Amino acid sequence: MCKSIIPILLLCIIVSGCSGTTHSSAEITLFEIPLDHAGKASKNKKVRTNACADCFPRKLGELRLFKVILTEEATGVINKMHGRKLDDCENFIAHYGSNDSKNILYVSVFENAEKAETNLIKMEMKMADGSSAFLPLAQIKIGDNNYFETDGMGLKHYFYRVDNILIWFQVEPDKATAFHDLLEFDFTAFNSRVDKQ
Question: With 60 as the cut, is the pLDDT of residue 25 above it?
Answer without folding.
Answer: no
